[in-house]
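Consortium newsletter contribution from the modelling node. Members have asked for a concrete example of what our holo predictions look like. Here is one, prepared for the magnesium ion complex that several groups have been discussing at recent meetings.
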Amino acid sequence: MADFSSLGLSDWLVKQCTQLGINKPTPVQENCMPPILEGRDCMGCAKTGSGKTAAFVLPVVQKLSEDPYGIFCLVLTPTRELAYQIAEQFRVLGKPLGLKECIIVGGMDMVSQAMALSNQPHVVVATPGRLADHIRSSNTFSLRKIQFLILDEADRLLEQGCTDFTKDLETILGVVPAKRQTLLFSATLTDTLHDLKNIAMNKPFFWESKSETRTVEELDQRYILTPEKVKDAYLVHLIQTFTDEHDDWSIIVFTNTCKSCQVLTMMMREFNFPTICLHSMMKQKQRFANLAKFKASVFKLLIATDVAARGLDIPSVQVVINHNTPGLPKNYIHRVGRTARAGRNGVAITLVTQYDIHLVQSIEAQNHAKLKEYPVVEKEVLKILTQVNVTRRQCEIKLEATDFDEKKEINKRKQLILEGKDPDLEAKRKAELEKIRSHKKKFKQRIEESIQKQKRGQLKKKLMKRKQIKKRATKVTA
Ligand SMILES: Nc1ncnc2c1ncn2[C@@H]1O[C@H](COP(=O)(O)OP(=O)(O)OP(=O)(O)O)[C@@H](O)[C@H]1O
Ligand SMILES: [Mg+2]
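And here is the predicted structure:
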């Protein structure tokens, strides 16, 4: 098996790796680092927690040490927390080199970011939106000479999800040199391979870890079938059982909306679990602070939306609970990949209602892995059901009394303005669409009613006819 020296890393960098407990290259590192060091573009698709970050950080640091200048490398990533995590790896591995990195993400002060950019850092780690803002509004820095463009979670950056990065990526790709090395990494690259090949044009080297399943073997994948109304009681029961059975524990619960995330956090606190939350409606400083407290095990339960689903590396997480079944199999892969990382064991439990069974089936089909039922003593869950549901209602009422929904409206308006749309006009359009939809619905209902009426009338006539025939028949026989 190869070691880091034989892959082409300098002794000082190998020593730096050893100090961080990175002794032997993982398969993605062993296979992707040599072509990157040779100067080729690279697309690496390997399972969650398999060391993809070091697979691109190490060759960049190696190349930077041979010819240091700024700005040498640009890394793009979909979330702000992930940008900080990647920058940290550059900082630690490039420390002997005096590597200067700079983080450009939304929700933080733009002026100090502009100053940091103009200081020519070696590496810029950014989320596309904020970097594109800087490019559009300032000429105090240049990305014209970068040697590496890296897209971590590349498929997410290119897909058109709820946050669409396409326009910002276009702006960024317009100011980076055509002659560069492009590196693309993710645990779920294959679906977007075609789009990605357009970005990495320099005959990219493509490597994918060969395996039956798309999730790691160390992950125990479970489900609990539950009616919607009993879901929260199952959640409380699961966490209570886990805390009773383990001294040292760390759990992430994923949910689908910011509001649900907030309510669940309030609820879990009512049950005295040390809980903290992470979602996109929080102030950025609070998001960083909460994540740091969870990483340091000050709080052991993190309730999060999909903003925490990709890339975050928190070794202490033993359990991931999906409070809602993810709609897309690849979102499931990333969520459950927050546990069972770097060869450790972990459990993922998905709460499934009767309406989500088809989602589980498509998760199983795409990941080539079966989810097993998680055994729960139902009697115990039913014992706490009323208390849990009452607590939830109380928390919902409390949240409604705050300006949470109002903030959401303000954020929506802000987003529309940023997209160059008039929020009032958009609201009017939405209301009109709603009106048309409700008219259509009423029309459909009326037609259905009249069809039913007609059918009833026909049935009545038939019955009457039958009765008359019977009557006549009895008269004749009499
Ligand atoms: N060669 C190695 N030996 C041991 N541990 C390693 C090695 N390379 C990386 N690690 C550790 O493995 C953990 C997971 O790495 P990393 O975050 O890069 O995973 P990833 O493949 O990017 O996962 P994801 O798809 O979730 O983003 C990190 O804590 C990292 O320090
Ligand atoms: Mg990663």
